[in-house]
Amino acid sequence: MQKAWNRFISNVHLHRFVVLLMIIAVLYYARGMMNTILITFIFTYIVVHLIRWVQKKAPKVPTWLIVTVVYLLIVLGLYFVITDYIPLLVNEIVKMANSLGKFYQSKDMKWLMSYINQYVSTGSIFGQAKHGVQLLVDAVTSIGTVTIAMAMSLILSFFYTIELEEMNDFSKSFLTSTYLGWMFEDIYYFGQKFVNTFGVVLEAQFFIAICNTVLTMICLFFMKMPQIFALGLMVFLLSMVPVAGVIISLIPLSMVGYSVGGLRYVIYIIIMILVIHALEAYVLNPKFMSSRTELPIFYTFVVLLVSEHFFGTWGLIVGVPIFTFLLDIAGVKSIGRKRHHYHRHQA
């Protein structure tokens, strides 16, 4: 038994494969927490990346000061969104609801409503209303879930980065474990490679979000829309979700556009979003992703399509990192090898 165990430990490829299966199993059973896990990882990666960049320019600046300033800016940004953007959006929703109510109560619409009532039964109307209420409840529930995940992720990433050096020293102590050191080394090996590949893709999506935001704000400026900065911030945050974020931004932009220029502005915004969405999906996403991950555009686009089909919106975010991660550990193609040394110190 001891000999078999020693042979297992000495076979690096075998025990790394076993550890990889264990990690996949743990993530599968923790899939209900996937929002919190991924958002925490994204926040932590961005803040750690920023810490290393600032300390490279100014080595004497302490980590805790950088982290404190960054999270204060995040809190101020959230305060700005809550106090400025959300009231604006709610006000536009109320205006749109009032406009629709007046529109359907007008004399010109009475003949249409009476015509509809002849062909639509009361039971059908109640059934559709019930379905609409259920959709509204599901939407509110999902928003609440994402909000809680976002809050927990901010707290977790803050405590990780505020004690970054202590966290690194404590985590490295697992590598010297007498009995399970080999397992922690494998976990460190996979974690290091995933941080490398995910970071490359995250940077690509950041550049895509900037392009989407600039194009959208230019269009909104010529349309003379109010609160362009707040709307631009909303578009930037949603654009961090590949492909789907641009489409989601259509809803609040259409509401604001309707209050400014009526149905004509809604049509303009729909056309604008369709053009930007096509630009992102067919030009920016494949081009930035392929240049950063060193993958052909065809492979990048296929991975985005397949991962979105199987994993939904999160598939668009983690599909390319997982694919490049698998290529790396399989020895097919190393991604971001030049940055490997940097990320090893960052981990």
Automatic annotation (TrEMBL):
The organism's place on the tree of life at top rank: Bacteria
Subcellular location: Membrane
One Pfam family, short name: AI-2E_transport
UniProt membrane topology term: Multi-pass membrane protein
GO terms under cellular component: membrane
Main location: membrane
InterPro entries, per database record: AI-2E-like
Assigned keywords, A-Z: Membrane, Transmembrane, Transmembrane helix
Membrane-traversing stretches: 12-30, 36-54, 61-82, 139-162, 174-191, 197-222, 229-253, 265-283, 295-311
GO biological process: transmembrane transport
Family to which the UniProt record says this protein belongs: Belongs to the autoinducer-2 exporter (AI-2E) (TC 2.A.86) family.
Name of the protein: Permease
